[in-house]
Amino acid sequence: MKIGTIELGERPVFLAPMEDVTDMAFRLMCKRFGADMVYTEFVSSDALIRNVDRTQQKLLVAEEERPVAIQIYGKNTDAMVEAARLCEEAKPDLLDINFGCPVKKVAGKGAGAGMLRNVPLMLEITREVVKAVRIPVTVKTRLGWDADNKIIVELAERLQDCGIAALTIHGRTRSQMYTGEADWTLIGEVKNNPRMHIPIIGNGDVTSAETCKERFDTYGVDGVMIGRGSIGRPWIFREAKHFLATGAALPPETFGWYLDILKQQVLQSVERLDERRGIVHIRRHLAATPLFKGITDFKHTRIAMLRAETIADLFAILDDIPARFGLES
Fold first, then answer.
1. Quick one: which H or E segment has residue 97?
2. Where are the alpha helices (DSSP H) in 184-291?
3. β-strands 200-203, 13-15: how paired?
4. Distance between CA atoms of residues 187 and 201, nearest Å
5. Which of 206, 271, 284, 293 is nearest to 41 (CA)?
6. I need a surface site. Which of 28, 157, 274, 280 has the fewest CB within 10 A?
7. In whole numbers, what is the pLDDT of the chain averaged over residues?
């Protein structure tokens, strides 16, 4: 699979852009475990052109994480064009436009998935951004606004006509948010449309190596994007790549091996922010990780883990888990 001139190999697996999740440290961690391409947190075009510090920080990319995409969102054509040019100066490998974020503060104001209710403006923004930069431009969007307006099959053709180099489709409507099951049937229909010639990347509910392979096999997509399935589990990319290559599950590591990965994430988060904010930031990963699922009588330990405010306290709790619950360290 290629996006523009970027060679990504066969059946690539991508890290999805996620706000407050895909900072550089997490992207590098996922790259280490085999993610073929990673995406930044989404960047507000309005905040970027106003030179907001936190937004500027999101443009920082490392050589070790390439190929890497910066994702932008907004509802004003001129602002999106200016933001696209600023992003290009940060030297990402490609630029992605977010037409899929469903949260109210974005979609409710007409940006992100809100663009699914204003297709002419969506297409205008896409055309102008493509013309404004020299790097490949891609789009990430959803099936449609709601169950009565699943427009993705026709929309995909129109976005392709705007000059985008690839299209990522999340298998839900905006009204579904992240509830229910992702429907990949329309993603497959877009991929199998003979008029489509750009790569199609599927996204939604890929939470295991087996599911990743099934999405490739069943729907014929060019790439699979993993989002929430990677939170607290960056090693999912290692598992997925192994399963795709061999058809067999990767033998599990010891409990202590996975625990060490989570501790590395804690340290990276603290280094990037500070002790208090870094620990608060990483709690989402600790809460979501499947590592602690199924451990009997773990509730009180989980609460203590998510309330810890220092590295010393948090690591004392984590280090005690194998012995307390009889797990292989």
1. strand 94-99
2. 185-191, 209-219, 236-246, 255-272, 275-288
3. unpaired
4. 8
5. 284
6. 274
7. 96
The answer to whether residue 112 scores a pLDDT higher than 70 is yes
Beta strands 166-170 and 137-142 are: parallel
Q: What is the mean pLDDT of residues 178-198?
A: 97
- Burial call 303-324: b when 16+ CB within 10 Å, e when fewer: eebeebeeeeebeebbeebeee
Q: Is 212 a catalytic residue?
A: no
Pairing of strands 2-3, 6-7: antiparallel
The widest CA-to-CA distance across the chain, in whole angstroms, is: 60
Residue written as token pair 């298998």: 171
- 329 pLDDT more than 70: no
C-alpha angle 135/141/142, rounded to 5°?
Answer: 165
Give the position of tokens 């014929």.
220
Q: Can you state the angle between helices 255-272 and 275-288, rounded to 10 degrees?
A: 150
Torsion sign across C-alpha atoms 70, 9, 172, 120? positive
72 in Cβ contact with 80 (< 8 Å): yes
Residue 62, helix vs strand vs coil: coil
| From 87, 101, 162, 212, active-site residue | 101
Residue 76 has which token pair? 């004003």
* Residue 155: band (very low, low, confident or very high) from pLDDT cuts 50, 70, 90: very high
pTM of this prediction? 0.95
Q: What is the CA radius of gyration of the chain?
A: 20
Closest CA to 30 of 306, 240, 318: 240
| pLDDT band at 227; cut points 50, 70, 90 | very high
